[in-house]
Amino acid sequence: MTVKIINKSNHQLPAYETIASAGMDLRANLEDKVVLSPLDRVIVKTGLFIELPVGYEAQVRPRSGLAAKKGITVLNAPGTIDADYRGEIGVILVNLSKEAFVINDGERIAQLVIAKHERAEWQEVEVLEESDRGEGGFGSTGV
């Protein structure tokens, strides 16, 4: 699949690091470093603009190492970029740690996964078919 991209950053295009990688790292495109205090959030621009085919979305997801080691994650994970969006990709980061975190230009801040999706058509009914699970939710099937 080919995706059109405009790169207004000074950084390389996102790329798959291994043959089996699902995501590509997104990098911060900053003029000055950003200090993200504990429990603060910020939208970090990437300098990237994409044109996805209809039927696909781009999902902005946290980087596991940044989350585990520094407590930095994507606030609305996964963030969705729709096929008709043409603006700059921004990443909403939040600092869940107890220490300030410095975001530098070019820092890998999130990952991008391209995924196919379906469009649903609602069929209004009076009754839903029964299932083994029924109405159980929010951990009802676990211990």
Protein architecture, described:
A 4-stranded antiparallel beta sheet has the order 2-11-6-8, with no helix packed on it. The protein has a 3-stranded antiparallel beta sheet with strand order 4-9-7. Strands 1-5 form a two-stranded antiparallel ribbon. Helix content is 5%, strand content 35%. The protein is built from 1 helix and 11 strands, in the order ββββββαβββββ. The protein is mainly beta and 143 residues long. The protein has one domain (4-116): Deoxyuridine 5'-Triphosphate Nucleotidohydrolase, Chain A, CATH 2.70.40. It has one helix spanning 64-70, and strands at 4-7, 24-27, 34-36, 41-45, 48-51, 56-61, 72-74, 79-81, 90-95, 101-103, 108-116.
Percent range for β-strand residues: 25-35%
Provide the succession of SSEs: EEEEEEHEEEEE
Named at the architecture level, the CATH assignment is: Distorted Sandwich
Low-confidence stretches: none
State the secondary-structure class. mainly beta
Helix content: under 10%
Question: What fold name stands as the CATH topology?
Answer: Deoxyuridine 5'-Triphosphate Nucleotidohydrolase, Chain A
What's the mean pLDDT score? 95
User: What is the number of domains?
Assistant: 1
Q: What is the CATH superfamily label?
A: Deoxyuridine triphosphatase (dUTPase)
Q: CATH first level: which class?
A: Mainly Beta
First CA to last CA: what distance? Answer: 42 Å
Give a summary of the structure in a few sentences.
With 143 residues, the protein is mainly beta. It is built from one helix and eleven strands. The strands form four sheets. Strands 2-11-6-8 form a four-stranded antiparallel sheet, with no helix packed on it.
